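From the shared-data thread, chain only:
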Amino acid sequence: MEVVRQEALDRTIEVAESAWAPITVSEQPAGKDEYPRRFIDGSQAGQPVLCIRSPQGWPIAMVLSEVGAVALKSVGRRFEREFVCRRTLLSFVADPFPWQEVESFATELLNRPDLNLRLLPANRPPEIHSPFDYESDARPGPRSRLNRR
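Structure, as tokens:
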């Protein structure tokens, strides 16, 4: 039996879900204070560079990424750059490791200015199917890739 994972989407942040209704957009031009004034964009590019083992024996990928962001401000008919940032990060699921060791590793990275690298702990994947459990794909059964033809 294939497990279907539902996304956690909260539709009640602004209003109750039962109060949602269509909105008719005015065809009038936007007022002076209705135009966006700031535009923020970012990007991420990364690759796994190393595989380590957790204390439980799970293989955990370490991902080296470069992330960047820019904020632009609308001034008349042009944009001016307000802010730009670029960081190099090393990311991995840190939950299986003792937190003191993760903190110590992060501190060591910060103390190496030649690396210009920061540690970013990633969220642990959902328990429905752990990506650390490679044997679940090898077991016979409906989830096994070996049984699909």
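The beta strands are 38-53, 59-75, 78-93, 118-122.
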